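Anyone else keep sequences and structure tokens together like this?

Example one:
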Amino acid sequence: MGNTKTIKFSALIEIIGINPFVYLPENVLNFIFLEAGESKGKIPVKIKIEGHEFPQTLIKYSGHWRLYLNTPMRKAAKKDVGDNADFEIAFDKVKREIPMHSKLLKALQENEEARKIFDNLRPSLQHEIIRYLSFLKTEESVERNVTKAIGFLLGQERFIGRDKP
């Protein structure tokens, strides 16, 4: 993680709903808060799980700070819920913005009702949709999922594990 200050810890991978996560020890949280200059909102971090590096966001939910671990992270580390894993974490100073995929932008321009619904979603759900589409590998999967996203916005189908907004 370069010249960035890091701290190491081990933690048990737990799950809340469908989301695997780890709690960070208090000394690790204090280290991140000090580096970030804040202890509120979403805090961008870089993590290594079992030596594999990923960008991630530290989030406070239901009164507890959690580090969520997506499938690619757990697969790379060969770890799953119930396993202990070794971590290294650092505050990430790099601003993170994921641009909206051009096909989603076009679909929203072509469907005014879906665009209005999208524009009124909470920012975290907008970001989740944009982020999901940005990680797709093939144009075919992008097109299929943009169609699903529009259907989701219009209340016609599930998308990203969610019922209609």
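And example two:
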Amino acid sequence: MHAEERAARIRMYEPQTVPGLFQTEGYIRELFRQVRKSPQEIDNQVAERLDRRKVLLKPDPPIVWAVVDETALSRLRHLPHEVAREQLEHLLTIAWMPHVNIEVVPISCGLHACMNGPIVLISIPGRGEVAYCEGMGSGRLVTDDQAVLDVECRYDPMRAEAHSPRHSVQVLSDLLEML
């Protein structure tokens, strides 16, 4: 997504998977293997997704607030051990970057306003806020100010249900120990 490259701030919520910017190669391969893509398609998707991660390592990276549903993390326990371990270790490494905050929404919060799909809110200098809402195999960029505000009005209360970044790091560490 080109907007990520220009972003000053990225806020995201992921209900089912580890956020794309944070995925390891093994995790990406497992994910796309489930949708029965050809080996070439998988290789292309892996390369594309890994390339997106460069935004986190830029000299002036965006501030990133990533909220992940606990169910997405729980699924890691059912992947091959080395894939799950590598993914959790990678998340913990990213969580300690000064410009990245990871928050986990506990299953115990019940239903919330963002249950129906991933959301990305991007602040672009000189442009303002845009949103990207994803569905099964497709997504749409939202640029209308009122529509972006509507997305924010769903995101903010859901984020209030999340564990703090410090507690979320502990959740990730606990999951890693359980492997």
